[in-house]
Amino acid sequence: MRASIAALVLFLFALFGAAAASAEVPPSSTAAREILVMLRLPPPHYRPGANYGGSYTDSAGSAARRRIAESLAREQGLEVLSGWPMPAIGVDCYVLRVPPGANLDDVVRRLSQDRRAEWAQPMNLFRARAAEGGTAAKASLYSLQPSARLWRLDEMHRVSTGRGVRVAVIDSGADAEHPDLIGRIEVERNFVDTREHTAEAHGTAVAGIIGARGADAGVVGIAPASRLLALRACWEEAAATLCSSFTLAQALQFAIGEDAQVINLSLSGPDDPLLARLIDAAIERGASVVGAVDADAINGGFPASHRGVLAVSDRAGAASASILYVPGADVPAPAPGGRWNFVTGASFAAAQIAGVIALVREVSPAPAMRQSAAWVRFPPSSPDGAAGYVDACATLQRSVPSLNCASARAGTARVSR
Does domain 2-123 bear CATH number 3.30.70.3090? Predict the structure, then answer.
């Protein structure tokens, strides 16, 4: 029995893993000539609450889907680059390269009309919602954190630290050796390339804001006892942090399979059918999905605009019941190489909300916090520019009435409507 399982694992790696490992993520100019094709074979391979065993992962079925992908590619003059099983939504996803001169939209349309394909789509690119920041000195960083000043984070940690809550950080690489993150990352996976460990600025900052252990005068994470899954699906290119439909889909599939209770997506891009279905699958299984708002995009960009995703912005402009506002300017955060930076952007506002959800889910495991009424906001009369921002302490206090929140006294906070 063990021998047959081992053989199956080796076969699947040869079929999917080796292809994925050999295909380094291309720059945006190359990704623009790639498309995704999803293939499904009966019977249905996924039911909520079920595992991913059985007919879906059998070697014969996987090989059959690979042959179909190669046949479709030959007929259209394309090249199969890689593939990955997405059992959460019952498909295999294949990356195909479109040759120069071919109209990508026409190729996608023809493949989508082919009865052998579930659907086809372009390879979209996504961008982290962050701006450049300055270097921070290590001393007294806690007092500079917006969460410490605005939310009484020390009081919140008396009742909850997010202990045991699994938080998937789908981002660029996190520096697991940073003093703030040593021992904090439970699982590391790289869906971008073959490197085992990659420390990058954006992913390190997001992971630290959510779950830094707060030792030795460094940054104190919102949920310092949460269980972090650092899933590298983005890469840093020049001054930008970019991700693709395929790398994000692999990371989402992994997060779903690992029963992540919170999934943080500090990024934005175009609507994406594959990612939308995976997000729906995660939400259906009870996960809270957090997305960063792109203030320049219609409806805040995807995935923040997707139904069920908690949309987070760092700009408390016109009040909106569908957007959570959190201070995201000059937030101290860990940086690769044992350093600290001040970071700015919706990416880091979203990370703070992901941490707050972990705090709430430790003491009240059921709430996914997807409803606007689950959150308390500072009222217009609040001092220090807090009006409209989420009051995390008062939000947690609804689950732990004994929590001491100065902001929740004498009606100084209101429930979001």
Answer: yes
List, for residues 38-90, the tens digit of each pLDDT value: 998 655 444 444 444 344 456 777 888 999 999 999 999 999 999 999 999 99
* 231 closest CA partner among 201, 261, 265, 278: 265
> Distance between CA 178 and CA 201 in Å, rounded?
11
- pLDDT tens track for 111-120: 999 999 999 9
pLDDT tens profile 97-106: 999 999 999 9
Q: Which residue has 């790639």 as its token pair?
A: 34
Q: How far apart are CA 33 and CA 21, in angstroms?
A: 19
- Contact at 8 Å (CB) between 55 and 43? yes
Alpha helices in 55-124 (DSSP H): 59-76, 104-113
> DSSP string covering 379-415, please?
-TT-STT-TTSB-HHHHHHTT-TT---GGGGGG-SEE
- What is the DSSP pairing of strand 310-313 with strand 288-292? parallel
pTM of the model: 0.86
Name the token pair of 56.
């879906």
Q: CA 179 to CA 390: how far, in whole Å?
A: 29
CATH superfamily to which 128-415 belongs: Peptidase S8/S53 domain (3.40.50.200)
Neighbours of 40 (CB within 10 A): 16
- Going by their DSSP bridges, the two strands 262-265 and 288-292 should be labelled as parallel
